[in-house]
Design goal:
One of its GO terms (cellular component) is plasma membrane. It holds the Pfam family DUF218. Keywords: Membrane, Transmembrane, Transmembrane helix. The protein has eleven helices and five strands, in the order αααααβαβαβαβαβαα. With 351 residues, the protein is α/β, with parallel strands linked by helices. It has two domains: 121 residues; 133 residues, HUPs (Rossmann fold). Strands 3-2-1-4-5 form a five-stranded parallel sheet. Helix 1 packs antiparallel against helix 2 and helix 2 packs across helix 5. The longest helix has 40 residues.
C-alpha cells in the first residue's frame, strides 16, 4: 500500500475522532458519542492491519493477524458466550437480590438471544419467495431487532466513555440522587454508595459546596429519601448547614428539576457549577434529565456498584432511555418501514 493510501486511511480515522471530541465537549451525555467512538476504533483497527501488512513487519503482521482472529472468533462465537454470561448473571442476581421482575432482565435478554438464533432462520425458510409483503414484514421485523441491538451497543459505549472526563473540585452544589429506602427508613447499600462518593468528592473541595439530597417519600416509606440521606450524611461528618434535603421528587427528572429550584433560590444569578452523584449505571441517563431542566454546566460522578448488579441495571437504563427518545426511534423505523414496503410493492409489480 502506497503512502497516499495510508494518509487517506489516517484522514478517515481522524474524522470520527474529531467528531467524538467535539460532541463530547458539547454534550458528553449524547449517545452519538458511542457511534463516533465505535467508528474511530473500527477505522483505527483497519489502519493498523493495513499498515502492518504494507510494512511487512513480522511482529506487526502477527499482531494484526491476532486482532483479525479475535474479531472473527467473536463474530462467530460471541453471541453464544454472551448468552452463557447472561444466564449466569441472571442466576447470580436472583440468588442475591431475590426473584423479582426487575431482576429478570438479563434472563429475558438471554432467552431473547436464544430465540433470535433459532426462530428467524426457520421463519425465513418458510416464507415463499413470491410472498413479497410477508417478506417485507419479516425484513422490517429483523431490522428493528438489530437496530435496537446496535443502539444498545452505542448506549454501552457512550455510558462507558462518559466517565472519562475529569471531575474538578470546583463545584457550588452536589446533588445526590435518591433510589429508595430499606424498610421504609434505612439508607440501603446502593444509596449509601452514592452518598459516600458525594461526601468523598465534597472533601476534595477547598471551598466546600452545598450537598442537596434529592428524593421524596414513596408509598411504602416512612420518611422522604432526601431526609434520610441528609441524616446519613450529617452522621458521617457533613455540617448541617452544608446539607439540604429536597423531599418532593418522585423520579430522576424531578430530582433535577426540584434541586435546580433550590439552587436558583440560593444563587439567583444562575452562575453555579453542579455535580450529581449516582451509581455508574445511572449517571448517563441522569445527565440527560439534568440538561432537560436547564442544568448545562453539570456532570455526573459515578459511585461504584457491585459487578453482578450492573448488567441487569444497564438493560433497565437502556429501556428507560429508549422510552425517553421514542420519537427518534419511531421516525427511523417508520422511514425504514416505508422504504422496505415500497421496495416490496415495486417487486410485486415488476417481478
Amino acid at each position: 500500500m502506497d503512502s497516499q493510501s495510508l494518509y487517506l486511511l489516517l484522514f478517515i480515522t481522524l474524522l470520527p475522532l474529531i467528531a467524538l471530541l467535539i460532541s463530547y465537549k458539547r454534550n458528553r451525555g449524547s449517545i452519538y458519542n458511542g457511534f463516533y467512538f465505535l467508528g474511530f476504533i473500527g477505522a483505527l483497527g483497519i489502519d493498523f492491519i493495513a499498515f502492518a501488512f504494507s510494512s511487512q513487519n513480522k511482529i506487526l503482521m502477527i499482531l494484526a493477524g491476532l486482532i483479525a482472529m479475535v474479531f472473527v472468533v467473536l463474530s462467530f462465537f460471541g453471541t453464544f458466550i454472551l448468552i452463557i454470561a447472561l444466564f449466569k448473571n441472571a442466576r447470580n442476581l436472583i440468588q442475591k437480590e431475590g426473584f423479582r421482575f426487575h431482576n429478570l432482565l438479563t434472563l429475558f435478554a438471554a432467552i431473547g438471544l436464544v430465540i433470535l438464533l433459532i426462530i428467524p432462520p426457520i421463519v425465513n425458510g418458510a416464507i415463499p419467495e413470491d410472498a413479497y409483503y410477508l417478506r417485507a414484514l419479516y425484513s422490517f421485523f429483523m431490522f428493528a431487532i438489530y437496530y435496537f441491538i446496535f443502539v444498545f451497543i452505542l448506549f454501552l459505549l457512550a455510558s462507558w466513555i462518559y466517565r472519562f472526563a475529569p471531575n474538578k473540585a470546583n463545584k457550588d452544589f452536589i446533588i445526590v440522587l435518591g433510589s429508595g429506602l430499606r424498610n421504609g427508613r434505612e439508607v440501603p447499600p446502593l444509596l449509601a454508595s452514592r452518598i459516600d462518593y458525594a461526601i468523598e468528592f465534597y472533601q476534595k473541595h477547598e471551598v466546600k459546596p452545598i450537598l442537596i439530597f434529592s428524593g421524596g417519600r414513596g408509598d411504602d416509606e416512612h420518611l422522604a429519601e432526601g431526609v434520610a440521606m441528609k441524616d446519613y450524611a450529617i452522621h458521617h461528618g457533613i455540617p448541617e448547614d452544608h446539607a439540604i434535603a429536597e423531599d418532593q421528587s418522585r423520579n430522576t427528572y424531578e430530582n433535577m428539576l426540584f434541586s435546580k429550584r433550590i439552587m436558583d433560590n440560593l444563587k439567583p444569578d444562575g452562575k453555579y457549577k453542579v455535580a450529581f452523584s449516582s451509581n455508574n449505571f445511572h449517571i448517563f441517563r441522569a445527565d440527560r434529565y439534568a440538561r432537560m431542566v436547564g442544568l448545562k454546566n453539570t456532570h455526573g460522578i459515578a459511585a461504584k456498584t457491585a459487578t453482578y448488579f450492573i448488567p441487569n441495571a444497564m438493560i433497565r437504563e437502556y429501556i428507560a432511555l429508549i422510552v425517553m427518545t421514542k420519537r427518534t426511534h419511531i421516525v427511523v423505523l417508520s422511514l425504514v418501514f416505508i422504504l422496505i414496503f415500497t421496495f416490496a410493492v415495486v417487486s410485486s409489480i415488476l417481478l
